[in-house]
Design a protein that fits this description.
Blueprint (H helix, E strand, L loop, with lengths): L3 H8 L1 H9 L1 H8 L4 H28 L3 H28 L14 H16 L2 H23 L9 H8 L1 H19 L3 H27 L8
Helix pairs in contact: 1-10, 2-10, 4-5, 4-6, 4-7, 4-10, 5-9, 6-10, 7-8, 7-9, 7-10
Length: 223
């Protein structure tokens, strides 16, 4: 049987192509992305990371064995630490005090995505949870590497590009991919189908998150 990761990747090919083609990512690669759009993104991504970290911690606790718990927890949380440092770099570059994030409000796309992950963490089995978490790692690695191949060295978003195209981030991604494949190997057909569905939904949220940042999408101005 085809590996879970291969099947999930194949089934989301058109969706991933749409993510690469988003104006946010094409303009980021060109270095022409407007500062207000990137600022909106980096604030929302920092808020996202807080909830994503909680989902990762729950995933580690649900891991089926000690080895998987240690491998998944260390690699996943290590990647989060790198992202947090990146956020602080850009937040300060945009004049945003990282401490002020406590008062920031998640936009609709951020709230929907994190709510999906937290629901999977609390109510779903380990197999479905790891499948839901995988796109955040894998899609960023895929997009980061694609942009790095064509971005100019003087690109103002070079730190972002280098973070997600870095081999160390890629190693963390590979460990999460391996964890999802091991989970799928022992899963029933019904659980594997739920894993594929969770993976696709998370990919859809990745599209929405970047599109929302470009559109500066927020809540309706209704009291």
């Amino acid at each position: 049987m085809i590996r879970f990761s291969e099947e999930a990747w194949q089934r989301t090919a058109s969706l991933r192509e749409a993510i690469h083609a988003l104006p946010f990512n094409t303009e980021l690669a060109a270095g022409t992305l407007a500062r207000d759009r990137f600022q909106h993104y980096i604030v929302q991504d920092a808020l996202y990371l807080g909830e994503f970290s909680r989902a990762l911690a729950l995933a580690a606790a649900k891991a089926p064995d000690t080895g998987t718990l240690q491998s998944f927890g260390q690699s996943a949380l290590g990647a989060v630490a790198v992202e947090r440092a990146l956020h602080e770099h850009y937040l300060r570059a945009f004049g945003v005090d990282p401490a002020s994030l406590a008062d920031a409000e998640p936009a609709p796309d951020c709230l929907a995505y994190t709510s999906f992950l937290i629901a999977a963490a609390y109510h779903g089995p380990w197999e479905v949870l790891v499948a839901a978490l995988l796109p955040c790692f894998w899609i960023y690695w895929d997009v980061g590497c694609a942009i790095a191949r064509k971005a100019a060295p003087e690109n103002p978003y070079r730190a972002w590009i280098d973070t997600y195209a870095d081999e160390r981030f890629g190693e963390a991604v590979e460990k999460v991919i391996a964890a999802s494949d091991r989970a799928a190997e022992a899963a029933t057909g019904a659980t594997r189908a739920r894993m594929l569905s969770a993976f696709r939904r998370a990919c859809q949220y990745e599209w929405l998150f970047w599109d929302g940042a470009y559109q500066l999408r927020g809540w309706p101005p209704i009291a």
